[in-house]
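chain below, 355 aa
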Amino acid sequence: MGKIKAGAKVKEGLGNFEVIEIEKPRLRDVDDVLFRVTSVGMCGTDVSIYKWTDTIAREYHPQFPLVIGHEMSGIVEEVGTNVTKFKPGDHITVNEHIFCGKCDQCKAGRTCICSDRDILGCHINGGMTEYMVVRQKNCFKLPDSVPHYAGSIAEPLSVAVHAVERVPVERDQIVVVYGVGTIGLGVCIVLLEAGAKVIAVGVEKDEKRLAIAKELGAVPVVTRRPESADILDVVRALGGTSGADVAFECSGASPALVSALEVIHPAGKVCEVGIPGKDIALDVGGQLVFKEKTVVGSRAFYHSTWDKTMKLLETNADKAEKLITHQLPLEKFADAIDLIQSGECIKAVVCPSKN
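prediction:
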C-alpha cells in the first residue's frame, strides 16, 4: 500500500511530537470509509497530550507512536460494500468517539459517556495524517458551503451545539459566555442563531478574540473589576435587572465559574463546558440552595448532535470559518502547540493534503 506521513506523539513525557511514516490504511470492513485528510484542527487536548500530564497519561494510556488529531475532515476516496451514505468525492467530517452502541449510556443516546469508548487521536490513532479509515456511522457529509481547509471546525462546533443542548436558551434571553476561544465563540454562534442576547467575556489579552465575538453579534466585555460588576453593568443595560438568564463557562478558569454564578438571576442556570485545572470552592448554600441556581456539566457531544451541527453549518459556515486563524502544513504540526499557547491563535488547522 505504501507509506504516508503522520504527526505523532512518539513516547511519553513533555513534547516528543514528530512527523513519522506509517502504512497507508486500507478498507478493513464492509462499513469502512477511506478518505484523504484535508484539515485537522489542533486544540487544548492536543496541548495536554504534548505536555503529557498525569491526567492525560491516566485517561488515554495509548500505544506509541500515537497519531494525534481528533478534529478532522477530508474527501472520500473509497468505501466498503455496505456503505450507502457516502461516495468517492464527498466532503466529510468525523465524530472521533468510537462508541460501543451497546452500553446503557449509548442506548440512552449519551454516547460521549459510553462505558467502552475510544477517542481517535487520544486512545487510538487519529487524523493527523494524509489518509484515514473510519466506520461509516462516524462520518457526516459537510455542506458545500464549508471550505475543505475548514471542515475540521465541525468538531468543536459540535461541542458548542451540545452545550446549548444541555442548557437550552430562548429568544431574547440574556446569556453570558465566559471564554472566547474556539468553543466559547462557537457557543456564541449557536446562541445568536437561537435569538439570544449574548455577552462574550474575556480578559485583556483577548482583544482580537473579543473583536471576532463582536463581529458575530455578541457584546464583548473585558473583565477588570472584581465581583463581576463590569459584566452585571452590561446585563442590566440589556434588560436583565436581576441578572442574566444563563451563563456558559467555556474557559476552564476557576474565577469564571464563580462569576457565572454571581451574574445569573435566582433560578438561573450555568453550563460548565471548560475543564478547570483544580477543584473550585463554591458558595453552595448561598447560590445553589437559597437561590435555586443550577450548574450543569457538558462533555463533548452526543452522536445525534452532529446532525444539528451540519444544519447550523449550512447557513453559518462563514461565521465558523472566522474561528480559523492559522493554517499549517503537516510538517509543521507541532508549531501549532506554540500558537495555541501564545494566545494569538483561536483555531490552528493543519492541512495534511491539498484539495
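The two ends are 21 Å apart (CA to CA). Residues 39 and 152 are 6 Å apart (CA to CA).
thats it, cya
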